[in-house]
Amino acid sequence: PYGASKSAADIAINSYVKSFFNKKNNNNLIAVARAGNVIGGGDWSKNRLIPDCIKSWMKNKAVEIRNPNSTRPWQHVFDVILGYLTLAVKLKKNKRLHGEAFNFGPNMYKNYKVIEILKKSKELWPSVKWKIKTKKNFKENHLLNLDNSKAKKYIKWKPVLNIDNSIKLILNWYKSFSLKNKNQTKKRSLEQINYFEKLLKNI
After folding, report:
1. Are strands 37-39 and 74-76 parallel, antiparallel or unpaired?
2. Total Cβ atoms within 10 A of residue 35
3. Which of 40, 47, 56, 102 has the fewest CB atoms in 10 Å of its CB?
4. pLDDT in tens, 15-30
C-alpha cells in the first residue's frame, strides 16, 4: 500500500499535467520530485529512526528498533533541498523537463542498514544504546532503493554528503538543541548550512 500510494500520486500528477497544463503557451511548469529517507536535525516525527533514537538517547534510554537489517536510502535534508531547488531552476530553463519525475537519493551502492546507522551513531555518541523489538505490529519492506541516475544526467544533481558526515551533522544539531539554548541551536544550524555551502563550492 505504501509503494502503491507513491505510484498513484505520480499518475494523478501526470494526468493533471496532460489535462490542464499541456498547451504550447503554458507557463505553469510542473515536475515530480521523489526523495528517499530524509534525515536531519530538527525532525521530531513519530516512528522514524533518527527522531526515535534521539528522543530515547536524550533520556539515556535504549531505543527500540523494529528491523535492524532493513536497508533504506538515507540522505541528509540538505541534499534533498539542493535537489528540489536545482530541479526548479532547470525546469524554468528547460521546458522539456515539464511533467517529468526525478528521484533524489544516495547512490544505490551507498544504502545502509538500520544497524549500521546505529553503530555509526555510537562512534560519535558512545553512550547510545538500543534493543531489538521482537514483536512486529505491521509489515515493512526490508529493502528500499531510489535510482538517482536521471537527476544526475538531466539536471546535473548529485548527493554532496556521505552517511558519515550526515550523521555527524545530525547528532551535533540535536546535542546543541539539548542544551535548551535557542541561540546555540540557531548558531549550529547556520554553521551547518555554511559547511554544506563550502562543500558545494568544491564539487
Report:
1. parallel
2. 18
3. 47
4. 999 999 998 888 899 9
State which H helix or E strand residue 189 sits in.
helix 182-201
Asked whether 163 and 120 are in contact (CB, 8 A), the reply is: yes
C-alpha cell at 55: 528522543
The grid cell for 174 is 540535536
Residues 66-115 pLDDT 10s = 889 999 999 999 999 999 999 999 999 999 999 999 999 998 777 899 99
Which H or E run includes 101? strand 101-104
Beta bridge partners of 71: 113, 143
Q: Report how far Cα 174 is from the mean position of its chain's Cα atoms.
A: 17
Q: Show Cβ contacts of residue 154 under 8 Å, excluding neighbours closer than 6 positions.
A: 90, 97, 100, 102
CA distances from 169 to 7, 20, 151, 191, 194 (A): 32, 42, 24, 10, 12
Cell of 59: 533520556
User: Inter-axis angle of helices 77-93 and 182-201, to 10 degrees?
Assistant: 50
DSSP-assigned states of every residue in 18-48: HHHS-STT------EEEE-EEE-TT---TT-
On whether the CB atoms of residues 85 and 142 are closer than 8 A, the answer is no
- The residues facing 63 across adjacent strands are 130
